[in-house]
Amino acid sequence: MYILDNLKKINYIVVLMKPPASLGEFEQVVLLAILRLEKHAYGVTIRFEIAACTGREPAPGALYTTLDRMEEKGIVHSWFGEATARRGGRAKRYFALTKAGLAALVSAQRAYRSLLDGLDLLGDANG
Hints:
Blueprint: H1 3-6, H2 25-37, H3 43-54, H4 60-72, E1 76-83, E2 91-97, H5 99-116, H6 121-126
Antiparallel strand pairs: 1-2
């Protein structure tokens, strides 16, 4: 008699979770800017935040292409605010991270920290 014949049937559910999305460097910069801006994250403020924090001035087209791509991937979501006369009747398009976007950003940042562990890059630059 085989041991397997004596085992009872075991029922269980397997849930396959997708790993966090892989993020490029610019996508991470954009997501970090959105997090910093909280409820005030729309195209112009995101560009200004990136410039203020990194010294980089992304072209509007590059930023909006990245935001659209990340929304298609489920990393961010957007919504429109109210149209205002000051904006010529146009509404601002606001952005926020989704749970998947936050998970992807955390995963990417952990990977960077792991790679930096034991290196003294900033200490040499500041000396």
